[in-house]
Each structure stands twice: as structure tokens, then as C-alpha cells.
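Hi team, as promised in this morning's meeting, here are the two structures we talked about. I've kept the exact order from the run log so nobody has to guess. The first one is mostly here for context; it's the second one we should focus on when we meet again. Sequence first, then the predicted C-alpha cells.
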Amino acid sequence: MGDIRDEQQVLAAVDQTVERFGRIDVCVNNASAINIAGTEALPMKRYDLMQDVNARGTFLVSKACVPHLKRAENAHVLTLSPPISLEPRWLKDYAGYAIAKYGMSLCTLGMAAEFREESIAFNSLWPRTIIATAAVQNLLGGDEAMARSRKPELVADAAHAILSRRSRECTGNLFLAEDVLVEAGVTDFAPYSYADGEPAVDLFVDSVDPQAAQEA
């Protein structure tokens, strides 16, 4: 275990990875803190944690991996962050969390342009529908939300599809997982259903593609 907020721990982890495996081909920015309280209810300690883990952590880990990714044949950085929607409904109830998650996506867009000539792909991935995780269970609706969730395997399969693409041809995207899988040929999403409920749209997603979000 390491603290993504600690620069020296991150640099040491990257060095140890290279020492053990000889190289880095892929960086996945998955670490994230969530607090969906409104402005008055959100303690600044929790606000700072989200910024440190989400936006700063993504920037730091990506930065630490870039020198090694420059030497990879098919280098990818994949960040689990949403499309950037400026619809007020995504900002009014939890601006602090939105700032932190959008910061991750801005890292994707900025670094994709910055390192395009080095053939390092930077992309983000986000599910159209909620995923059965501890955050959904504990923070986004409990058993009712879990019944309307899909399995984490959906995101894993979409990530694999992205990371299998040529980095020169796939960079600067804020992907939705179901769209990636549809493009990869998936037509039946029933195996990804966590329970029997109709899949619920995730945060920061304005609509559900009717082809990609079939009922379980």
C-alpha cells in the first residue's frame, strides 16, 4: 500500500516497478476519493483529500511514468474519470467532487496533446451506468443502487479494449465504457448485470445510449 499524495512514495513505486519488470507500458489512474456533499456541508479536509488524490494524484503518477512510457512500444495512460459536462445539475449538488474528477479528465486532455509526438496515449474511461462498487453501496444508494448496477468486469473489459489499441491512433478521448464495448462488437450486456434492476445512469452522464444500455 502507498499514499498517492506522497511524491516520494509514488516515485519509489515507479522505480520499483521498473526495477522488477524492466519497463512500464501502461499506467492506470484508478485511485479516487469521493464525497458528494454540497458546498456548505463539505469539510475543507475532505475537499483537499479529493483534490490531492484525484486531480493531483493523476497528475503526479502520470508525470512519474512518462519518462518510462516514452521508451514503450505502445504506451498508454488510462484514467478513470468522466466526460466533462458543464450541465449545472452535475455541479450544483457536489461541486467539490466534480472539480476533482474533472481535474483528472483535464489531465487526460492536456497530456494527450503534450505527449502526442512521443506516441503516449492518454485516455479517460467512465461507465454510462453505475458499477457495483463499495462507493455505490455506501454512498450512492445502498442495496437499491446495487440492484441497478453493472459488474466491474464491464469497465475492465472496456479498459482492455482501449489498451489494446495503437497508442498513436487512440489518444485524447473521454470514453464511455459501454460505447467502447459496442465498438468492440458487444451486443449483449446482460452478462454484465449485477442484479435484475434496470441499469441506472452514472454521475456526469447526460444520457444512456439505448443500444449500449440494454435491460439485463
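And here is the second protein, the one for discussion:
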Amino acid sequence: MANQTYNVLFLCTGNSARSIMAEAILNEEGKGRFHAYSAGSFPKGAVNPLALAELEKAGLPAAGLRSKSWDEFAGPGAPQMDFIFTLCDYAAGEVCPVWPGQPVSAHWGMSDPAAVKGDRHAVERAFHETFAMLGNRIRLFTLLPFERLDHIRLHHELRGIGQTA
């Protein structure tokens, strides 16, 4: 798996916050080495404004980001994925489409910041913490020595990253 561009799909139920932020972070952190996408099993149809605010604060581009169904990536003509990460408990428990090419997958579950109840400050803090956690996990992912990891070791490393705060 060395010296190639890897396609990565981040999945969540609504594809409005976590998976959108992950897509933007990896496309910036992994420029030239990774191409990130995001999708949802039941997409909300719009990106959460607080997710966009986190991207803006970090100076990450948000152009082209949209809430979309994972069906876009399961059909003919879709990019073949090398990695698929589920980011929420709902997507991890759902029956996913069959992905061509047998991508490596892992569950990187985390709470949905959009589901946080409370005042505006508490909700914004939840988005910021989720963004930071995604950034940490994605940085660890991009540093993996893919050329030296067999399939089993790669699975182990990805599961470990999913436990990182």
C-alpha cells in the first residue's frame, strides 16, 4: 500500500457534523496522500453550521462539503475506497453496503456534538472537542507506516486509533 493515494470514507448517520469535519481535516492533513469523502446512512441534507464554524476557525476549506447518502459510494462509478471509518454508534451497528475492493474498516465512535443539549456555549464546546478528537485520530492515521503493515497489523492499529481521545 505504499506510494499511492488512498481513498477514505467517513460514515455517520446524518453526515452533517462528525463525518463532514473528518472529511475536511483529512483532505487538508493528507494532501497528496489521501482523498477523503463522507456520507451518511440517513443524511440530514445539510451541513451543521457549527461544524462549518469549526472548519473556519481552523482555516480549513469547506467548499463542496455536503450531506449525502452512502449510496453515492456503493454504486458503479464511485471511487473505490481503501479505508472506511464509522464515527458513530448508529452507523457501526447498521448494515452497510458492500464496498467494492474490500476496504480496511474500523469504528472510531464518538458522541454526536449536534445531539448535545444545553446552552450555546456547551454545544459549541462539544463541536470543538469533537473536532480536536477527530484531528488527533486523523493525524495518527496519516503517520502510519502503511508500507510496513500487513492487513492484520493495520486493522489493529486502526482500532487503537479509534480509542484515542
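Starting points for discussion:
The chain is about 35% helix and 15% strand.
The helical segments are 18-29, 49-57, 89-93, 120-142, 151-161.
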